[in-house]
Amino acid sequence: MTSAVRPAFPADLDWDLEPALEVAATAVAAAQLPAIVFGVVDADGRRAFLAVGDPAAGIHEDSVFFLASVTKAIVATAVMQYVDEGRLELHAPLARYVPAFSGEGRDAVSAWHLLTHTSGLPDISMDRMRRERPSYEQALGETLASTPRWEPGSRYEYNSSAWSLLSETMATLSSSAWPTVLEERLLRPMGMADTSFDGRPLRRRIVPVEGMGTGNRLVAEVLLRFLARAALPGGGLFGSVPDLLRLGHALLAAGLLSRATTRAMSEQQIAGVPHIAEDGTTSYVEQGLGWRRAGGEWPAGEGVLTHGGHSGTRLWVDLERGFAFAFLTSVWGAGSEVARAVLERVVEAAPGSEGGS
């Protein structure tokens, strides 16, 4: 049985979100996704939270989900704080901030290359991560020892493990441990109390990710311990819709970063840079600074910051239309079709659209 749960937070956004809720409810009823929580915030801070799922199974507006690669959007925002402060030069060699990462072609790699996935560094597969469960220090050590496989900036290849160089840059600049840096500089000031690499204190509110074996309590506990220890900057955070909307609103309101920096994150950074698949096929990607740009079948528009996660998660910050949208679910390898369909109804409800007020 599924039901829409009444908001548990102040929800004063007066957009007509019933069509969006209907799309989400239909997807859950058809077993496309086990549960969905989504929300919207406008530039003035008015919010709405909606959940579809069984409250008896713990599905509420403040349920906690594994964010997967939406983590990158959060970390990228923290990285750009240092850029705003003049403490990090995007195109400088990372060796300036992480001295251990130097020599053998490494000096050509910058923070910009990492944020745009053009560093040429090798990635560590998620399967291997799950199998070997390395600590943060072990994974970082492997990245520090790696070298670019092609000239940085010449090719696009999505990479998660190399983001440990960004986390180490932040740790060096703040003279503190990486998880502490993210907590003190971004999460705590934003009031993002549900967002953490360590999900163990939140375990009763966490929605298990289907397809990862987390239905078994022992496996779930092992994964929680691993993620807490690994603190993966490329995809290891847990979080909630209210927390993501806090971040989204701060970006809309230009209270977190300068408007110029926020805009830069949303702009195409790698025009003409190819992505070459294993079969030799060449394609091109809409990539901002740490965030993806709206493209393909997603609602068109300039000034969009977005990122998804392999667990079905999505954060969308629409600078032009003036709203942020968060969509969380819990299936490993979930597609984006439902999130996109819900977002389309949200866009239609936005003021200034044909269906909006």
Model description:
This protein has about 350 residues and is an alpha+beta fold. The protein has two domains: about 210 residues, DD-peptidase/beta-lactamase superfamily (Beta-lactamase), CATH 3.40.710; about 110 residues, DD-peptidase/beta-lactamase superfamily (Beta-lactamase, 3-Layer(aba) Sandwich). Helix content is about 35%, strand content about 10%. It is built from eleven helices and ten strands. It has a six-stranded antiparallel sheet, with helices on both faces. A two-stranded antiparallel ribbon has the order 4-5. Helix 1 packs antiparallel against helix 11, helix 2 runs parallel beside helix 6 and helix 6 crosses helix 7. The chain is globular and about 55 Å long. The two termini are about 35 Å apart.
Descriptors:
single chain; 357 residues; alpha+beta; Beta-lactamase; six-stranded antiparallel β-sheet; two-stranded antiparallel sheet; 12% strand; globular; disordered N terminus
Task: Summarize the model shown.
With 357 residues, the protein is α+β, with helices and mostly antiparallel strands. It has helices at 18-29, 70-84, 111-115, 126-132, 136-145, 164-174, 178-187, 217-230, 241-252, 259-266, 337-349; strands at 3-5, 36-42, 47-53, 65-66, 238-239, 274-276, 282-284, 304-308, 314-318, 323-328.
Largest sheet composition:
6 strands, antiparallel
What name does the CATH topology of the largest domain carry?
A: Beta-lactamase
- Strand-and-helix sequence, N→C? EHEEEHHHHHHHEHHEEEEEH
The CATH architecture of the largest domain is: 3-Layer(aba) Sandwich
- Kindly provide the radius of gyration, computed on alpha-carbon positions and rounded to a whole number of angstroms: 20 Å
- Point out poorly predicted stretches: 1-9
What topology, given as strand order, has the largest sheet?
Answer: 1-3-2-10-9-8
Structural class: alpha+beta
Fourth-level CATH superfamily of the largest domain: DD-peptidase/beta-lactamase superfamily
Q: Can you tell me the overall shape?
A: globular
Helix content: 25-40%
Number of domains: 2
Please report the first level of CATH classification, the CATH class of the largest domain.
Alpha Beta
* Number of DSSP helical runs: 11
Strand content: 5-15%
Span between termini: 33 Å
Mean pLDDT: 92
Overall number of strands: 10
